[in-house]
Amino acid sequence: MRQASHGKIAVRFESVGLRYGSGPEVLQDISFTLDQGSFHFLTGPSGAGKTSLLSLLYLARRPSRGSIRLFDEEVSTAARAALPPLRRRLGVVFQEFRLLDHLSALDNVALPLRVAGVAEADIHRHVPELLAWVGLGDHMHAKPPTLSGGQKQRVAIARAVINRPELLVADEPTGNVDDRTALRLLHLFSELNKLGTTVVIATHNEGLVRRFQFPRLHLEAGKLDVLPPMALTASVGMGTGPIPGGGQS
Amino acid sequence: MIGFLRSDLPVARDASGLFLPWLVAVMVFLACLALSGAMSLDSLLDRWSRDASGTLTVQVPAATGANAETETNDRVERAVRLLETDAQVATAMAVPRERLAEMLEPWLGSAELMDSLPVPRLIDVTVAPGAMPDLDALVERLRAVAPGAAIDDHRVWLARLIRLAEGLRLLAWAVIGLVALATAAMVVHATRTALAVHRPHIEVLHLIGATDAYIARQFARRAFALALLGGVGGLALSGPVLWGIGRLVQRLEGGLVPDITLGMGQWLVLLLLPPVAGVLSMLTARRTVRRTLTRLL
Ligand SMILES: Nc1ncnc2c1ncn2[C@@H]1O[C@H](COP(=O)(O)OP(=O)(O)OP(=O)(O)O)[C@@H](O)[C@H]1O
Ligand SMILES: [Mg+2]
């Protein structure tokens, strides 16, 4: 089991810029560092470039300029062949889920384990357990097209966390679920974080951001500011009742 | 084999999974027919050339008059003797009357009728190996002992038949070439089409850390299995058809078309078609997936 080891750096962006084709720079001069074991929200208006920033983080594209270090490796110029092992240390929840429609929920979640060569016996032990935890125990063999938006999202989250990633990147992971479920999922991320996983979550849900007192990366007009946790003032959007799933050990 | 075909990734049972084997089945079926056609022509030509090089038939017209029967026999005997003394001739044998009667029975109905008709007599001649007898001179000499004798040179018409068959064989090989090319193109195209459906899956596998080799392997194995399945189907389909054609040819009898059933080696060539289609599909899948992947980071 990995320990939260502060002091080590999981991610470092230096003067990173990104443009699509010959368009304008969607991200300009982005610099920040994420300590290993830290938890950040990524906020900003729609179109600010959150998904773009995360896609750099989960190695879907290279920056147009600047340097990105991931687990102490320079990835902006790394050879293609060096990237798959790095990707296996990540867990990603895509904004549009990207589940494989012809695979059952179980097989979708098992995918990262299969790619990493984990034995089938272990897969069949761990995957149902996690699916049950995210409330999909009864839908393990359902295909994504037959699941609701929120159920799909939970499958996507289960797939992202099944291999205990060192860095979890989630793009609007609670966009399609009710507040109760959103809280429950955030607690899952928080549990993972306590076990040492560095977490970055893009969200529009101000209630969640207030409720979980984590620092924010705020994107606006292509620029990034690192902000402290949002003040716990005024109207807290989320209910204050018992936290579902909070008692999970 | 089974281990090789096993895939970690249960790839979609989509339309492409049906499309590819059917297409390959049809193409392998056509390739099978063309190939076996060309190969039978090969063996046919082989036999014909062997026949054509060595045999002649001498025709001795029946004599007329009082002692027609004995006179005809005498003429045949003289002709045979003359032929036997020729250095260019290996053997010369008069075709017995009974054999002639048998050959003519379908036309004349009964042997009695033949006795009353001036049916010419035949002498089968085998030419000495490598010899090229001067047929005009030979006919002159034969006519001296057997007036009206003629030489039926198989070589003339067989040579024409051979030329025809050679043309057909060339055509058959051209058809095979085309069918092979078309099969390859179709397998390649079908495999690519099947993979286009899987592009999002390829991307997801890529993003969760699968190596290019791993992803290509998943799809290559499936493409191999599907094309092999189709190829076996096509081969199975061509089996009864080839057998049926063989039966029809056999019923033709008549020495003109010799037995043209396929030999062991030729069947082996046909058996190779499905695995060849499988390997082709596999290589295409691998190439296509790899190309898709290099467009991603
Ligand atoms: N693949 C692409 N090609 C070209 N432009 C793109 C592409 N993806 C995003 N953009 C542009 O980049 C900008 C930032 O988009 P991005 O998806 O990163 O925003 P976002 O912050 O994730 O928005 P949202 O909150 O709505 O998800 C937008 O102006 C968008 O048009
Ligand atoms: Mg987005």
Walk me through the structure.
The complex is a heterodimer of chains A (249) and B (297). With 249 residues, chain A is of the alpha/beta class. Helix content of chain A is 29%, strand content 24%. Chain A has helices at residues 50-57, 83-87, 105-115, 120-133, 149-161, 179-194, 206-211, and strands at residues 9-19, 25-35, 39-43, 65-70, 73-74, 90-93, 167-171, 198-202, 216-220, 223-227. In chain A, the strands form two sheets. Chain A has a six-stranded mixed β-sheet, sandwiched between helices. In chain A, strands 2-1-4-5 form a four-stranded antiparallel β-sheet, with helices on one face. Chain A is globular, with a radius of gyration of 18 Å. Chain B folds into two domains: 2-50 and 158-296, no CATH class; 62-148, no CATH class. Chain B is rod-shaped, with a radius of gyration of 31 Å. In chain B, 73% of the residues lie in helices and 7% in strands. Chain B has ten helices and four strands. In chain B, helix 2 packs antiparallel against helix 7. By secondary structure, chain B is α+β, with helices and mostly antiparallel strands. The model of chain B is unreliable at 1-6 (pLDDT under 50). Magnesium ion binds next to helix 1 of chain A.
| Structural class by helix and strand composition of chain B | alpha+beta
The Rg value of chain B, from CA coordinates, equals: 31 Å
Bound molecule types: adenosine-5'-triphosphate, magnesium ion
Shape of chain B: rod-shaped
Q: State the helicity of chain A in percent bands.
A: 25-40%
Low-confidence regions of chain A: 1-5, 235-249
List the uncertain runs of chain B.
Answer: 1-6
- Looking at how many chains there are and whether they match, the oligomeric state comes to heterodimer
Biggest sheet character of chain A: 6 strands, mixed
Largest beta-sheet details of chain B: 4 strands, antiparallel
Secondary structure: number of strands of chain B: 4
Give the number of DSSP strands of chain A. 10
* Mean pLDDT, all residues of chain A: 88
> How many helical elements of chain B?
10
Our estimate of the beta-strand percent of chain B is: 5-15%
